[in-house]
Design a protein that fits this description.
heterodimer; A: 166 residues; Beta-Lactamase; B: 174 residues; Muramoyl-pentapeptide Carboxypeptidase, domain 2; four-stranded antiparallel β-sheet; ER-Golgi transport (chain A)
Chain lengths: 166, 174
Amino acid sequence: MAVCVAVIAKENYPLYIRSIPTENELKFHYMVHTSLDVVDEKISAMGKALVDQRELYLGLLYPTEDYKVYGYVTNSKVKFVMVVDSSNTALRDNEIRSMFRKLHNSYTDVMCNPFYNPGDRIQSRAFDGMVTSMMIQARRGKESLVARAPGAWSPEEAAKGGAEDL
Amino acid sequence: MADPALFEFLHTEMVAELWAQDPDPGPGGQKTSLLVLEGMGFRVGQALGERLPRETLTFREELDILKFLCKDLWVAVFHKQMDSLRTNHQVQAPLRLPGTLLCPQGTYVLQDNSFPLLVRMASGLQYLEEAPKFLAFTCGLLRGTLSTLGVKSLVTASVAALPACKFQVVIQKL
């Protein structure tokens, strides 16, 4: 379930970064930052491979104990990084790919917006809405599995909630 | 289909509008209008560079990017392909390997023998002085698309006889 989505520009600075829950944001920012190295590694590895078709979707970049990080790079070297909570039912590859495709389409729309200057932070509400729907969809899915009091969701509370239900 | 005509009319009006507002018909005023047109083309090119490339990373070298410009970009905007793509060999590399494309300087000449924005004007040498203003937007378009795809370049256009025109793309190595 997407807990953090980031759009990184060609020059490796963030154009858009958003995470749920809002505490511990710095941890997600740091994870995205470290994942850029892995992205660069994958890109250069692809460049050396003599394959005709190279994928935009980079796949799982690296797993940590709580989260998995996925990457995607566009033809204009803009990178999308998604941090996904690995505690639940593992999201299938297809679902991650479709989420990245939606991100790519929304990013293209932002680029075509005449009021957007390439290189600025993305402030489009439509883009925000699309990212929120990706994150909330995941949250709603998780809440239907385990009954929990409404309120801020965080990994610690999720662990507590799970223990209480048992 | 009316689509190509829509863009042509819009472009004609853009050039006419920018030139009409020019109180000083001398070289200074003209340059600003040309810069504005080129800037517009640049922004459009940036957006197109994001939208057009296919779902896969297929640009392995500069030549691939130029071929993309000649085929996909030209077809999307002008509904026809570029007629020829040539490279200007300016060898600066000390080693010449047989069979490789020698273009370290990165100069390409894209030739279009019947450029849609010029085809309606004349066929021959009439209106040769007026032609450059109708090419500024397209130069910007090429530069913008190249810039999104990661290539810094300088694009100039030249017309020998309408409606054939040549776009010279010089790739600037950083």
